[in-house]
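Extended Data, panel c. Modelled sequence:
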Amino acid sequence: MAREDENAGVACDKTKSDFEKGREIGRIEGMIAYQKHLIENMQKENEGLTRKLEILKCK
């Protein structure tokens, strides 16, 4: 009985460890997605500002 309890504790620790690893991967993927979103928005804003600059140069 004690042996089974000991194995359950080890399995529980392994499960917690695996859960934390998965959580970290999810955080990293989330950060990458957020950064990609920021980059896309900055590129759109840059295009708009470049157009405005060209208009001002023509005047």
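The two ends are 87 Å apart (CA to CA). This feature is highlighted in the accompanying rendering.
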